[in-house]
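Explain this one:

_____
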Amino acid sequence: METGAIIALGSLLVAFIALLVGARRDTRGEAASQAQVHAKLDSIAGGVDDIRVEQRAMRERLDGYAERLARVESSVKSAHHRLDQMAAPYHPPDSTAG
C-alpha cells in the first residue's frame, strides 16, 4: 500500500472516532438540557396547579358574596317598604297628580 493511502485511511479512522466522541458528548449535553427543561416544566405545572386551587377558592368566595348580596338586597327592600308604611300617615298622597 502506498503511503498516501495509509495516511488517508488513518485520517478517515481518526475522523470517524472524533465523530463518535462528539456524538456522545452531544447526547450527554442534550440529556442534561432535557432534564433541566423537564424540571422547569414540572415547576411550572406545580405553579399552575396552585393557581387553579386559588382560583377555585376565589370563585367559591364570590359565589358566597353573591348569595349574601341577594339576601341584603331583599332585606333592604323589605326595610324600605316598612319605612314607606310608617311614613305614609305623615305624607298623604299628592292630590294634584293626575
